[in-house]
């Protein structure tokens, strides 16, 4: 089942107080979605599109289960602080020295005793999933309290949370029974240039090159921002002399660039001298200085 993102205009933390009775909450892990198929002790890892990815994640520790079972979960790789990092799991390719991914389960689709249980509610599927922990399966924690999970999200610097209707059946497509509650990351960045556009944006620009200053006041590129603009933004931004400052929402710092950056607006109130790694992206300062 794919989660729907929280409705536009509603903050994730506001929804936590609205989704009370009948909902459960899990931390959202930033990894590689994966189905685990188990039959006669043989485990096959498949991507959401059905591709066999077992060779790529051959170093991943697997549970000792006979099956038949089908489990839904996430392959994650953690950084030195123990936080799931999409950048690291992307580098897990089964080669010596690559990050080693861990499989974390969050749902059970096919049970050895019951067969296909996708039509059963989450409250029935969850105990069967938890029973597999005795065989070495790692299962994601949950809580009926959204605030309790959000505290975990904040304290462990996670991407966000997933809210699920406790009585929901399993569905493979997007559903209002699962909601992504994303934690917002934003920073002020220096626009250093315009990248050429194409198609409908051939007459304006494709993206904005952005940077921050290191401890030596040198500009260090942190990627490019190519989404979040309306027609007025496209016209107005071309009139501004370089460099100028914009607000950027992003999902993660990969170590070299912002992941999934989105333009939020021009920040005329933020001086360029404030756009430093020290102030805007302190976790990256070590590598930028």
What's a quick, concise take on this entry?
The chain is of the alpha+beta class and 289 residues long. 16% of the residues lie in helices and 35% in strands. The strands form 4 sheets. Strands 3, 4, 5, 6, 7 and 8 form a 6-stranded mixed beta sheet that branches. It has a 5-stranded antiparallel beta sheet with strand order 13-12-11-14-17, with no helix packed on it. Strands 1-10-9-2 form a 4-stranded mixed beta sheet, with helices on one face.
Strand content: 25-35%
The whole-angstrom Rg is 22 Å
Q: Could you estimate the helical fraction of the residues in percent?
A: 10-25%
- Number of DSSP strand runs: 17
User: How much is the average pLDDT?
Assistant: 90
Give the count of helical stretches: 7
Unreliable stretches: none
* Secondary-structure class: alpha+beta
